[in-house]
Specification:
alpha/beta; TIM Barrel; Type Iii Antifreeze Protein Isoform Hplc 12; 2 domains; eight-stranded parallel β-barrel; 35% helix; 15% strand
């Protein structure tokens, strides 16, 4: 995989991404401070998350009350709007990263945001786990021919296979990921990484981690991960739901050091030896043998499914098929009628996108309503 002039893959240095996401608290100055700190500790790339709220969420999802310590507004829409940077803000951050010689990118969280990011000519675009089953967005991203990285949290093995079949003919990467914040070691499923490498030889394989600590991420490199992504924060006690499962600068610096130590030492070991190898590399406070053994349990492809620990994230941010327009009874659904959004309540899985196109609607349906089996003939 090529990211600008950088080759990513086996035999090359691990590409380390600091996921700033929305840990910048809606402040460009904090974002720049985070970029400078990431550069200082040796990170290769900083990544943000771009959303067009009306394209990512239904109106009802945006209107739901969202109060409490982590909220930046009275509704979820107000909260998300407070944290969202404009396209001009992104241009400013992109230029800042260019001057500081660190890669800049973002996750596209909806079709409008994808278009904005493509206009910025980023070195690559990321699709997060919440869009790994978003069939139309995946197709549009792949068709753009931009280098594409896809995380696979909350997905079934069959959906991960679908991603590979459609991505393998271009510059792309698939990241093993568990969408639980934090991820319990017993459900980290790290041994999916070598399975991905064996089954998906035409893409780069990496790891996006949400666990507490750093040893499981270091272990992912010993298992073959060529891209490593972790959330980044300046202060883990800051307001916001992502900070707790993020790494602070001291932790991220140690992660970078451990990964580069493995590369420089050209360590290559069997899975069974990983705990012993890491006991020699990691500082004592970063090592927990019992936790490692849980994360390194024997794993099969069928274990890649919606996990118990991922249900909370799926219930909050999992996407559904929705009507993009008001639809009259008896209409035949076309592509322009169907979209994928975070909805309240949930509707049909986005993996069913191709099946609903061409179906007859049996009632009058309104824009932004989730699509259910009862709305369509023969579903």
């Amino acid at each position: 995989m090529k990211i600008s002039d950088r080759t990513i893959g086996e035999g090359h240095p691990v590409f380390i991404i600091a996921e700033i996401g929305q840990n910048h608290q809606g402040s460009l100055e904090i974002a720049k401070e985070m970029i400078l700190k990431a550069k200082e500790i040796g990170v290769d790339c900083v990544k943000f998350q771009k959303s067009c709220l009306n394209s990512k969420f239904t109106l009802e999802a945006l209107k739901r009350p969202y109060t409490g310590y982590n909220s930046w507004g009275e509704t979820y829409g107000e909260h998300k709007a407070y944290l969202e940077f404009s396209v001009d803000d992104y241009r400013e951050l992109q230029q800042f990263c260019f001057e500081k010689e660190i890669f800049f990118s973002a996750s596209a969280m909806d079709p409008v945001s994808l278009s904005h990011l493509l206009d910025l000519k980023l070195p690559f675009v990321k699709l997060g786990s919440g869009d790994a089953n978003n069939i139309p967005l995946l197709r549009e991203s792949i068709a753009s021919n931009i280098p594409l990285i896809v995380s696979t949290g909350m997905q079934t093995w069959s959906q991960v296979q679908w991603i590979y079949r459609n991505l393998r003919n271009q510059s792309g990467a698939i990241l093993h990921c568990v969408s639980a914040y934090p991820t319990p070691p017993s459900e980290a499923l790290l041994r999916l990484i070598p399975i991905y490498m064996e089954r998906f030889p035409e893409v780069v394989v990496g790891y996006s981690g949400h666990e507490m600590g750093i040893q499981l991420t270091v272990a992912s490199v010993l298992l073959g991960a060529c891209i490593v992504e972790r959330h980044f924060t300046l202060d883990k006690s800051s307001k916001g739901t992502d900070h707790k499962a993020s790494l602070n600068p001291e932790e991220f610096a140690k992660l970078v050091r451990y990964i580069r130590t493995i590369e420089q030492s050209e360590i290559n070991c069997e899975v069974q030896r990983i705990p012993d190898v890491l006991s020699e590399i990691l500082d004592k406070e970063d090592y927990d043998r019992e936790e490692l053994l849980l994360a390194l349990q024997s794993t099969s492809p069928e274990d890649r499914k919606l996990l118990k620990s991922e249900i909370a994230c799926h219930d909050k941010l999992g996407k559904s098929l929705v009507f993009l327009k008001n639809i009259s009874e008896g209409s035949i659904l076309k592509e322009e009628h169907v979209g994928v959004k975070v909805s309240q309540p949930h509707g049909l899985s986005p993996t069913l996108y191709d099946r609903v196109i061409g179906k007859k609607v049996i009632r009058r349906c309104c824009k932004d309503e989730p699509i259910s089996t009862g709305d369509l003939v023969d579903m």
